[in-house]
Amino acid sequence: LQATCKPHAYMLEALNGALVIFFYRRVRDTHPAALQGYVDSVIAALEQCSVSLSEAGTSGPGTAWPAFIAGCEALTPARREAIVRWLDNASSMCGFTSYAVARDIMTKLWRKQDEHLTANRSEPMPMWIDICKQEQIWPLFC
């Protein structure tokens, strides 16, 4: 890959992984535990994209959508922290509110997911769309 194409290739990789996560969670209602490998690949691609953007001297973090989708299904503190770190860094670069909205929705979702896992409930694991409906928040990640 040429140096100028690398950030875009990494973002495309992150978007691809997020699309897989989105499909399996929203369409197939797969438990997030089965998707942690995809969460890891999105995190790695986002981190590589950030490094590549920095090396190329390009400003701007890229879209929040893959971080949001992967972050909503991240089940471990390390994965969640990596997503929050990326979102916070992205927000500091451009100041778009979409990064803060994504972080807010994810934080609320993680609380519900952790409660769900602790209670060992038989109903489906909470999803980000549940938080959006409940809070009437409809994030735009353009």
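Above is the first protein from milestone M3; the second protein from the same milestone is given next.
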Amino acid sequence: KVEASRTFADSADDTARVAAEIIERINNLDIQEDGQSYDCILKSCLQDRLLPGNGVARCLYEVETEEVEEYDEVSMSMIPVTRVVHEDAPIEYYHWQDVLWGWARQWSELPWLAFRSYLSKDEVKERFPGFEDKVQYKTQKVSDGDDGDSLPEQDSPWQKAEIWEIWDKTLKQVVWYSAGCERLLDKKDDPLQLKGFYPCPPFLMANQTTTLYVPTADYHLAQDLYDEIDILQTRISIITTAVKVVGLYNAAEGGNTAVPRMFKETVDNELIPVDNWAMFAEGGGLQGQIDWFPIQDVVNALDKLISLREQYIGLLQQITGMADVMQGQLSSPYEGVGQSQIKAQFGSVRIQALQDEFARFVGDLFQIRSEIICKHFEPQTIMQRANMQFSNDRK
């Protein structure tokens, strides 16, 4: 839910009060009508923040116009007029691999920002007339992370042009570029005229430092512990398969066949006859016929590995801030209520910081959207979208 408020709550400032109500109505009605899209966009940004470490979304301004003739009282004749048919300010999600930016230490210093899109030939013809046969079309590939390993079975079957939309803050220009094309596809001077120039808020970035404006994934901070836990779990799985009753018996000529029959044929309280009892007894009886696998040594090793795994998980919880009590479990049955509360409070500090960061990102995103609405929407469109004709402040 979007809440728009005035900077100064002056009782006599009806203009600001009504303007804030209009912006709040437009945003909330749009969310109500298309909530699934907003939910999908924001969840994708949050997932990118938690996994690779960088969530990106931007605001657009889309307008459809038509040429009509209207009567001009000054010239006493019909003149052509451009009329707005439809306009909207949608929010669009961008995959973290489809965004590039210039060298900077913080967001305010970014010299340029680029967004990558993939357009079909018909879309290129509609957006960039005359360039549909001058750009290169290729299959959109799915890259599996920073290592560049591709997944051919998941690649797109359609040929599309790779278009980069570059926002140059230094020159206050936006250019559209496609690799392999001899000329720029298009160039515009500050099309949105936003206060911060860029059509997106600061990225939902993980573990940003003051050295360079790049994300550091949460996984990277505890990668060694994750690898150690993975190795221990692999060994535990392998050794677990060895924890079974296995033994050897004398299979030489004349060996007694009653030994293997004990595990295959018998049920409770049943005796198996033994041929040549004297020879069987002379060979040491049952103990002399079977040599069991030393399972106790394997069990001891398994217990040690499980103990080490729990220690590494405890270290991982301390580093990530996700205490065991927040996961619905306790590390010790003798742990007191006070200790549990301290661990939950310590973990909630980091969780609350991430929640505040996400709320800031969404708030900044809708601030940019509201700025686009105020600067570019027609007054009649704003009145209709906010449904102000039935408001007490309609005049």
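Note on the second protein: Residues 337-376 form the longest helix (40 residues).
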